[in-house]
Amino acid sequence: MCGIVGYIGKKRAVDVILKGLSYLEYRGYDSAGVALISNNAVHIYKAPGKLSNLKEILSQEKEENINANIGIGHTRWATHGLPTEVNAHPHHCNCGSLTIVHNGIIENYKDLKPDLEKKGCKFLSQTDTEVAAHLIAHEFADTKDLLKAVQNAVKKLKGAYAFCVTHKTMPDRIIAARKNAPLIIGVGEGENFIASDIPAIIEYTKKAIYLSDNQVAEIKTDSIKIYDKNNNLIANKIENLPFEPIALSKMGYKHFMLKEIHEQPDVVRNVLIDKIKSENLAVVLDDVKLSKEQLTKINRIQIIACGTSLHAGLVGKYIFEELTGIPVDVEASSEYIYRNTIADENTLVIGISQSGETADTITAIKQAKEKNSHILIITNRKDSAMARLADSLLPVNAGIEVSVAATKSYMAQLLSLYLLAIYMAENSTKCNNSSLIKEIKKELLTLPSKLETILNDTKNIENIAKKYSSFKNFIFIARGINYPTALEGALKLKEISYINATGYPAGELKHGPIAMLDETMPVLAILNEGVVYDKVLSNCEEAKARQAKLIGVTNFIDEKHKNLFDDAVIIPEIPDIVSPALNIVVLQLLAYHISEYLGKDVDQPRNLAKSVTVE
Ligand code: M6R
């Protein structure tokens, strides 16, 4: 949450910062601001709302004020204080000479504030960040050295932070620091960059240093010096950045979300490549660092994740239990933490996260690590904090996902879970079910073309979206392995259209939720031919008898039930165990088209952020 960009060099800093922030808006977009040093003066500009508001203000500013070669910028996701101009970053000290942009939460800001107030600090905002600005300014007053001031101040800060600091009297440097929040330093020639994430700087450089926890960096135009927590200078580890700038383009689609939905067939191909060659060959997963002996000893699996990744984990439970016979618990990371969880060295703990940055999941993984469990991380960001905690790292290779609503990363997570379950079954002496494994492999290999069948003709889904877009509430039902699909479909609709949608196991409808059904509450049912098909049909009949409008997402409707559904989307033939990967695409498209029809901000829905780095 919150995006940071810093620049020092020869370019117009404001241009680099605004462009960089536009690629970081996914991290938060309730206000934005920049601080520039030019002509021996600090110029701070802030605006509530989206970055475009800040751009508008800057477009009317005098050139001499914004023609700076050093600056820091921020896009905010509010934690402390409303998303107002005064709470927007950068924050500054009393005299305005020192400015800071910050991502994270200073947990002890209330403890530090009274002392700073006694020393004369005037607080203008409700933010935790302003405490850091005053604290560093006081250290600077003592040391007259910005690096030392930050080094002293961070020792007094508790919580999570990534920040950049500038001072009017030292316009040749930016000081950056991090703890439990991401920050990279882009390495240029005669210029350097700082950012929360790669997209902000990839246009300018493909080389960067990933700042580690408790490190402080001093960045000038032609030097980068990194210090560890004992203030010792350490060697720079420069790495090549994995993205191409093209990944950040909409490629002609109206929204990133639509582009990312349409990328899913290729995402599947990408995940499978070199891992499944044919249904007759064993799955190859070099990333799993568990010996056959260790695999055979695993007697419990715990999957920890949040949001969409949690729903992928719930699908994983069905797959693992079916193929490996090992009991699986799936839990929201925020519920896993701060209690005595039962895990030991024979427990496999799987953390799933698109961003690899989600604070709840990071904390949960650290907790599991203390129990000596093997930690396997499934993430789309192999450069993330979570990846660094992994004993085994399974990168899902979905490519950068810009839209806040996760789509293609979910698909890649599902595929990774199928692969992992098959791999474990094939490499453990407990493996049975080889004919089912063979069938799943065959289906996974044909999945891209089935996805393309859905994606090549979306007219029916668009019509249904239009027809139902005025309803205020929805219920999504399914049973078995598609119950998590119902949860994920409902989440997609909620987060991008703000329509109240709830996922239920279809059999639970009659235990309470059925009380809400009438003609104003559409029910979307996911039903695949298989053991639960007839049961879900009965639940649909029960809903119909309460006058609910029924939408079916299915691979099969028999003659008898043709008229049961008000509307239906028929997906290609697919066995139940692989069907979540097809059904979800219909629900993603439905949510997308409803949101788009309602004119909502599809890629950046209100109140959300792409990576949630606070607990
Ligand atoms: O990066 P992560 O997968 O750990 O993120 C978890 C959730 O915050 C995320 O899935 C969220 O629910 C998305 N907005 C879903 O579209």
What do these coordinates show?
The chain has 615 residues and is α/β, with parallel strands linked by helices. Helices cover 35% and strands 22% of the residues. It contains 19 helices and 25 strands. The strands form 4 sheets. An 8-stranded antiparallel β-sheet has the order 3-2-4-1-10-9-11-15. A 7-stranded antiparallel β-sheet has the order 5-6-7-8-12-13-14. Helix 8 packs parallel to helix 14, helix 10 runs antiparallel to helix 17 (483-497) and helix 15 packs parallel to helix 19. It is globular and about 80 Å long. It starts with a strand and ends in an 18-residue tail after the last helix. The mean pLDDT is 94. Bound molecules: 5-amino-5-deoxy-1-O-phosphono-D-mannitol.
Features:
alpha/beta, 615 residues, 19 helices, 22% strand, seven-stranded antiparallel β-sheet, 35% helix
Summarize the structure.
The chain is of the alpha/beta class.
Bound molecules: 5-amino-5-deoxy-1-O-phosphono-D-mannitol
Helix content: 25-40%
**What shape does the CA trace take?**
globular
Low-pLDDT parts are none
Beta-strand fraction estimate: 15-25%
Give the averaged pLDDT, no decimals: 94
Separation of the first and last Cα atoms: 11 Å
Strand order of the largest sheet: 3-2-4-1-10-9-11-15
Largest sheet: 8 strands, antiparallel
Structure summary, number of beta strands: 25
How many H/I helical runs?
19
Radius of gyration, whole Å:
26 Å
Structural classification: alpha/beta
